[in-house]
Amino acid sequence: MIQELGNFQIKTRIVFGRGGLSSLGEIAKKSGAGKFILVADPALEKHGVIRKAMASLSEAGMSGQVFQGVEPEPYLDNVEKAASLGKDLDADLVIGLGGGSAMDTAKATAVLLTNGGKAEDYVGLNKVELPGAATIMIPTTAGTGAEVTFTAVFTNRETKAKGGINSPHLFPDIALLDPEVTLSLPPGATAQTGMDAMTHAVESVSSRSSTIFTEALALTAVRLIGDNLRRAVFHGDDIEARENMLMGSLFAGLALADAGVGAAHALAYPLGGYYRVPHGLANAILIPYVMEFNLPAAEREFAMIARAMGEPVDGLPVRRAADAAVDAIRTLCEDIGIPSSLSEIGILVDDIPKLVEGALKVTRPVENNPRKLEKEEAQYIYERAFC
Question: Where is the Alcohol dehydrogenase iron-type/glycerol dehydrogenase GldA domain positioned along the sequence (predicted)?
Fold first, then answer.
């Protein structure tokens, strides 16, 4: 009997190792590119990361400029401004340096350089016709996995709605991962981005599109993040913890690129669009409540998650092992300072109907969730997250 195992493939060349940022210039030069635009998180300026990246590029004889106009939870017009600079430079290489906001902006910028138009023209699935400019992504947080995914998410400045540009043409050519550049990430951001990666892993395991390949990657990510996130938050100079977190985030990104995500992401999007809540924080607050809701439809998957997190579940009935996974995620969030409710971050309960409406428009994660999610169910989860 032939079994369909999905169409899993890794399209991005991955370079991983301490001190890897110093090799950026050499890698860029070998790509055959002439000129570059470096799309960077402006917060990295004070830590010297942008300066180090530019020095490596300069030493390799590469020419280009830095674009630092990336906003948190980026707007579509951030892309257009970056693409305008890239066109002025005649850039054929786009480098993303930062968290998900910078890397998403960089990936979309590469698309505009070759396809033209505006970023909003490509929001949706498979609307990008031509390959973008060459890309190198350098994550400075262990969270989004954007360095290996085909998605770039933005907020429409006028409507406040969040949506993704989703196309195989967005897969980066090269992902350069250097755990040393994550050492300067403060505890709060480490916690939020780390739980973003954990949410990717948990939802990849339990998604309707999960396969044996994505399951293996996602469960490895759960183990790495579960074992190292507390250490990275409270001992930020622990390079081994930072290295394991970056690897965990990478594995979670590889898993979600194929398996997709679920209700936590759909419910998180309106929080970012309407309230500008960082995506990692929104996911972190919501994931225990979403797991609680999904548990009856994902007992086996949650039991595996509990085991990957080191919970003593051997010999337990599957349901009790699954319960342990929800408890373990909730405890992890509490330990690293994630708020336990939406009200703690200023979300208004009267806005639930608006949030529900926005969440249900994020159709791919909604349809990929292991348990059916419609208006009543979305409202129930939001209400639980206010208690």
Answer: 12-179
- pLDDT (tens digit, 9 = 90+) per residue, 167-225? 999 999 999 999 999 999 999 999 999 999 999 999 999 999 999 999 999 999 999 99
Torsion sign, CA atoms 119, 124, 125, 126? negative
Q: Which fold has domain 13-182?
A: Rossmann fold (3.40.50)
Measured in degrees and rounded to the nearest 5, phi and psi for residue 137 equal: -110, 135
3-state secondary structure of 174: strand
> If you count DSSP H runs as helices and E runs as strands, how many of each does the chain have, helices first?
14, 9
Which CATH superfamily does the domain covering 187-384 fall into?
A: Dehydroquinate synthase-like - alpha domain (1.20.1090.10)
Query: Rounded CA gap, 5 and 322, in Å?
Result: 25
pLDDT band at 156 (very low <50, low <70, confident <90, very high): very high
- Which residue is it, tokens 């630092």? 68
Regarding beta strands 93-98 and 151-155, do their DSSP bridges make them parallel or antiparallel, or are they unpaired?
A: unpaired
Half-sphere exposure of 131 (CA within 13 A, CB side): 8
**124/268 Cα distance (integer angstroms):** 18
What are the domain boundaries of the chain?
13-182, 187-384
CB atoms under 10 Å from CB of 5, counted, come to 9
Rounded-to-integer distance, Cα 39 and Cα 45, Å? 12
The residue ranking higher by pLDDT, 259 or 8, is 259
Mean pLDDT in residue range 324-351: 97
**CB contact at 8 A, 359 and 325:** no
d(C-alpha 379, C-alpha 336), whole Å: 27
